[in-house]
Amino acid sequence: MNRFLTLAASALLLAEMPMMAQITERPRPEAWKNLVEGGRFADRFEAMPAGQLSDKNWGCADVQPRYVDNGIEREDISFWGGNILRGDDGRYHLFVCGWKENSPRGHMFWSKSTVMHTVADRPTGPYRVVSTIGKGHNPEAFRLPDGRYVVYVIDGYYIADSMDGLWMYGQFTFDNRDRPIIEGLSNLSFASRQDGSKLMVCRGGGIWVSRDGLSPYAQLTDRRVYPAVEGEFEDPVIWRDSLQYHLIVNDWLGRVAFYERSLDGLHWVVEDGEAYEPGVSRHSDGHVEQWFKYERPKVLQDEWGRVEQMNFAVIDTIKWEDLPNDRHSSKNICLPMNRGLRLEVLNRTPINARTKKIEVLVKGDDPELPLAELEIASLRFGTHSEVNYGRGAKALKAEPRGNDLLVTFQGKGSGITDEEFAPKLIGRYKSGRLAFGYARLPYVNYTPAILSARRPVTVEGKSSVEVQNFGLSASKPCRISVWMNGQPLASAEIGVLQPYEKVTCRLPVVLPDGKENDVVEVVFEQEGKPSERNRFVLGPAQKRK
Q: Per residue in 59-86, pLDDT tens?
């Protein structure tokens, strides 16, 4: 398996890099100017709650005054990374890393950072350090189905029976399954699947799955799942709510982030507009804490998985200009989010251009989102590419259904096709607050099968390919075919595979010897149509034996 940079090697490379501005202006697509409020993920950020406002602390003028009790900050420690878990004790637990502000080389001392367990009585803080866990950087904490806690750090993880410790260090194992590891295995982020297994994205944008959340993690993709645009991508954060998967990735050089959604965690659709950018940390009076960098985003989810808060590592200047014993430093901030509405489509048959009306049940279980205050005439419903630009199906009427609200939309203009798995609603409340949400479709399987192949091999004159179902429901019988450099070589039938079940499929021909850079593909066919392609590029160590 490919080796990846250790913390020490990464720090050395950064130390040798020339000083740079860490900014390049990325031009935004012209169409983004036409997005309506709610079309961008960034529109969901709400004002920071009032707190201890001060202009007497460290930091340049752009971050003065600020709420010094938001998140975690101290004069003597530079904080970075980390996420928040809601504890069984009703308190909020931020697992963050940091180092002494007066450390040699200032911010560039990050490779020797320490992971800390911090606690607060409210989600936005202030958080206080209660214990240290161990050395490590860019932590992300999650809970296993058996109740244990894991705190991932670059190159390893800590595990304990409770958040109070004792923490034991371990390392994940990874099976790249004959695929290239995309930009190394660092800055991992994890989402819980419906059966308690974990979906993981690495810094490079590869998707991995672990059945128990510890090891091994199996790679399912052969290329990054990020938007096909220019960018220096890192800081991915992935999560799942009661409906779908979400992913945000940051272009650190362009200081703009992108937002994606997925039915299965493997195939993603990108929504237009910024997921976040400098300036999202605002006060209710309009004042903005203008942090130079917003990095390491993490999410705090409610009982339905909706994002109720995001937290960021922020710094007030270029990282290389944050020196020991100076006025610069970094902290972790907490930003409240508009959680959105829970929606369910009642149409039992698939929606298409011939659908006359669409019935959407808006759940009324959130006291902070009173349905009586919805401005019905403002509501638009349909696929994100329509609704985000102010188009989509218009609301015709609304009527109470117990605590819920049944909104009937015209069928025309929704843009919904057979590929849609979570149509979107955008509108507003009478107060002017944004109303939005994604709807469950009754005819969509939200635990689909995921068939994935290893590279075909020939051993002792017999050729075969291993196929495994990494999805959460049984697969349908299908045909696989093996191609080399665009030419079909062989095919075979595969029967039903249960979740995590795998089979070795024998091929009726002996595969030719591959040459370096030959492209081998395994194509899955459902009902006579290609449904998935697994691509392998042969290298010196990958020729068939």
A: 999 999 999 999 999 999 999 999 999 9
